[in-house]
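Lay summary. Proteins are chains of building blocks that fold into shapes, and those shapes determine what they do. In this project we predict the shape from the chain. Here is one chain we studied, written as its sequence of building blocks.
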Amino acid sequence: MKIVLVCSGRRDPVDAGVNKFRRRVTGDVQRGVVDQLDPADRGNVMMHRIEDLTVHTKLMLVDDVFAAVGSANFFSRSMRGTDTELSTALVTTGDQVRDLRVRLWAEHLRTDLTEELRPSLEDLALALGM
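And here is the predicted shape, written in a compact code that computers can read:
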């Protein structure tokens, strides 16, 4: 399993005081998840912060066949229904999930999706580079 986390490189202007929280969550993920893995497995987890980008949507892509996207958090307020959240999922053997991943990666890498680059991003193992 490969895990790539893409997080905000700056706080959302409407979220007051989130910087301390974000640092705490990042540290918690590092200590509670990554540091607990066997050393051989730690190379399967990456966390990136994209400068000048606010990420609020939660997105999970699995093996280019499953995509889940929405606003629900893993915190109790979202899971109990205190906050109104929505997520949707797609399972397919078609190219929809792969194409979504390729477009998002090109956008987050801030590069044009050229005919030369597309095959490299479409190859999941090569694109992960992990």
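What the prediction tells us: The radius of gyration is 16 Å.
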